[in-house]
């Protein structure tokens, strides 16, 4: 069953450019201000729209990790409303990651990721209710491991793409 966007990579996981936080192109939560803000927003939006699927997943993971760190800090500073808002952003990102899983192409990997994402969502909901920074940290650690794996997979995919391009150019030159 294919859920969502059809632009999946060989791992069965893809992205559609929706960053799960209101669609404003702020994957990492970096707002833009001042005179050049509009240009920066346009650049960031274009960067997201033209990124390959692996890069989008990496950016979503980075955004989720950043928001979890900020949420833990807000809990420590006894600012529960801001922690709530940040955790909702993380939940939206994880939901987007779940929606981009391709079960036809990804098979067991997609099913395992879905179960892990579901676990993370449940942990974050409970952490949000209890304002439990340790629970958030546990999800953050899991997300860090996934990020490292995705970064390596994206790197390998780029190498393979360059190799295939060289073969294609070489074949055209003969």
UniProtKB/TrEMBL annotation:
Intracellular or extracellular location(s): Cytoplasm, Cytosol
Keyword annotations of the record: Bacterial flagellum biogenesis, Cell projection, Chaperone, Cilium, Coiled coil, Cytoplasm, Flagellum
Biological process according to GO: bacterial-type flagellum assembly; bacterial-type flagellum-dependent cell motility
Alphabetized SUPFAM superfamilies for the sequence: Flagellar export chaperone FliS (SSF101116)
GO cellular component assignments: cytosol
Coiled-coil ranges from the UniProt annotation: 147-174
Keyword Protease: no
Main location per the UniProt record: cytoplasm
UniProt entry tagged with the keyword Cytoplasm: yes
Membrane spanning stretches: none
Family statement drawn from the similarity comment of this UniProt entry: Belongs to the FliS family.
Organism: Halarsenatibacter silvermanii
InterPro entries on file: FliS, FliS_sf
Protein name listed in UniProt: Flagellar protein FliS
